[in-house]
Amino acid sequence: MTYFIKKEAYYLVEKLRQKQLRAFHLLIEKAKYYSRIFDSTPDIYHKDQTSQVLRYVMIEKQEVRVEESFIDSIETKSKTAEGITDMIVINLKADELDIMNCRGQAYDNAATMAGCHTGFWQPVLRDVNDAQKYLQTEGLNIHQCAHKISALQKVSEKNREEFMDDALRYAKSLCEELGISFELPRRRRKHIFGDGNKDAELSYEDDLRRTMFSSIDRVTAEIRERF
Hints:
It is a single chain. The chain has 227 residues and is an alpha+beta fold. The protein has two domains: 6-127, no CATH class; 150-226, no CATH class. It has seven helices and four strands; from the N terminus they run H-E-E-E-H-E-H-H-H-H-H. Strands 3-2-1-4 form a four-stranded mixed sheet, with helices on one face. Residues 110-120 have low confidence and may be disordered.
C-alpha cells in the first residue's frame, strides 16, 4: 500500500470491503437475525467516524457461537438525530441488509449521542407503538397522552382475537424456519384412583391462547384502573 497513490489505495480498499461484505451476507443469511452496533469515535483533529459491527448467532450441529464482524467505518458528518438517522439508513440500504431481521441495536460513546442527539432510532425503526413513542417525546400534552392510552385500551379490547391469531401465525412460521416443534412436550400426570377431577385437556395452542388472553385482559384492566 505504501507504493500506491491515494486514489488507487482507496479503490483497492473499497474492493476488499465489497468482497468482505459479500462473505458477511452469506453468514447473515444463514443466521437470519442480527444485531447492529455503532461506535462513534470523536476526533477534534481529524474526521469523526462511526464503526459498524454486526453480532449474530451461528448454530452448527450442537455448537452455538455468538460472533461479531466488523463491517466498516463511516464518516460522521452530523451528530444531530436527523444526521445520524440518515447515516444509518443510507448504510443499511448500501449494505443490502433487511432491517426487519435486525433484532437489536446498540451504540457506544453515549456522551456524543446523548441529549439533543438522542432518538435517532425512532425514525429508523418506525414499527413502534404510537402511544409508547408519544410518551417519550419532549413537551408532550397530558390530555393527548390520556387520549392515546384510552385508544390503546379500546384497540386491545376490540382486536384481541386478531392480535392472538397474528402472534400464533408468526410463532408457527418462526418455528418452521428454525426447524423446531411449535408444541412443547407435556409431562404426564400420575393418575390417582378415585380422583374425580378430570378436566378436559386443552391442546397446546388453546392453552397458549388462554394464557395470552389472560395477559391482554390484565393489561387492559391495569390501563382502566390506573388511567
